[in-house]
Amino acid sequence: MDSLGIYIHIPYCAKKCPYCDFFSESYNKKSVMHYTESVVRNLKYYSRERIVDTVYFGGGTPSLIPAECIGKIIDSVRENFILSENPEITLEVNPNTVNADKLADLYSMGVNRLSVGVQSLVTSELKTLGRTHSAEKAVETVINAEKIGFKNISCDMIIGVPNQTIESIEYTIENLCKLPVTHISSYILKIEKNTPFDNPDFISHMPDDDTVSDMYLFMVNELEKRNFMQYEVSNFAKYGFQSNHNNKYWKCHDYLGIGTSAHSCFEGKRFSVPPDIKSFNENAFQKTVITDENPCGFQEYAMLRLRLKEGIDVSKHPEIISKTPELLKAGYINFDGKKISLTPKGYLMSNSVIEYLVF
Ligand code: SF4
């Protein structure tokens, strides 16, 4: 059996960002303590003789909650599973929620990879995005983390922001890459339904599709020039620093999600937990809703796998070879006779390209 990844959802944020539709509520210490106990209770419930080699704290804002809570959860993973010798333990960080002491506490509790929500190093873009941290605070967070001993630091950035330019993206990339960063996730800003950005005035300031395509291709090129190689639609890593945890999602490996709105692909089923803190805290074990009784069939496997630069091996699925000539001609895929993968231009059209290939 493959080793297992564990995802822990921490559903608290200091302030809701206007573009985000992830489930979270405002921070409340009493609720956090109760929530931590519920996570620990659930880890016990799922207890297995299985090797866990990745743990990922996502949210919400996991860095908002006390480091002791994170420590308790890691201890519980160790008690209820076989934590591998060098597990990858990632925690998402909002720069405004940590100082050097808190980072040191997290490090001493076993967190060894940070995913820092930088988003941009341009003040006006951070303001547009409704982020409360400054560019200086983001830089300081990364520098402090490295001093404390973190050797694996990922940063998030966002492109496609109103009034963003190629030059401002270059500025963010250039300055991020000067920092001790090993991994960058770069997302295109999307208007999610029923978020504050979902209004005609904001939408009228969004860059058009051609501009966003130019930004994306520019970003891929600039990151690769600086040795951050693209390995997935939105993810770039220095050699040896791909996210082991996220790779499990794209490779159909097992992961167990604990907490409100967490998703799992676990022992032959996909399931999710309803976004409801009260219910999560009050029930002995998390309620789950099965979303797929038989996951990871060829279509799903191919759809996920084609997000990755390594692509799919066509030897077991020769039927899709007949669809390659047109996509090759359009510059959307690479095909060496054995493997098909998407080019950066193909990633921009990934939904349609993958659908054409797989269905
Ligand atoms: S983007 Fe992150 S910090 Fe902002 S509301 Fe969403 S989960 Fe919270």
What would your notes on this structure say?
The chain has helices at residues 29-45, 67-80, 100-108, 123-128, 135-148, 166-177, 200-204, 209-225, 244-250, 277-282, 298-305, 324-330, 344-348, 350-358, and strands at 4-10, 12-13, 25-26, 51-59, 82-93, 113-119, 152-159, 183-188, 229-232, 235-237, 255-258, 263-266, 269-272, 289-292, 312-313, 333-335, 339-342. Helix 3 links the parallel strand 5 (82-93) and strand 6. A nine-stranded mixed sheet has the order 9-10-8-7-6-5-4-1-11, with helices on both faces. The two termini are 29 Å apart. The protein is α/β, with parallel strands linked by helices. It folds into two domains: 4-249, Aldolase class I (TIM Barrel, Alpha-Beta Barrel), CATH 3.20.20.70; 298-358, Arc Repressor Mutant, subunit A, CATH 1.10.10. Residues 13, 16-17, 20, 22, 24, 59-61, 94 line the site of iron/sulfur cluster. Iron/sulfur cluster (SF4) is lined by residues 13, 16-17, 20, 22, 24, 59-61, 94.
